[in-house]
Amino acid sequence: MAYRAPLTNHHADGSPCPAEHKHTSSCKPLHPDCPGRAYTQAICTCGGWEMKQSGKGYVNESRRRHLASHPKEPKVLRDLLRLDGS
Ligand SMILES: [Zn+2]
Ligand SMILES: [Zn+2]
Q: How far apart are CA 55 and CA 9, in angstroms?
């Protein structure tokens, strides 16, 4: 199975800031219930990596680097391919 590490946005109290909470280009919240985005988080489904930073671009870059460190195909499949080749 492929690992995923979806980006999520959060308010300062840790509650999720959903996509419906629109923001101006200067990051001012437009939604009445939104106190503003405090940080962006990514948690990998492998369970061994997570990141929490205020900079969304940095989280996204680190996330991609982490996902690239995972093997592309599942171990079982690689074992099958190795058997085929021998
Ligand atoms: Zn919000
Ligand atoms: Zn991972």
A: 10
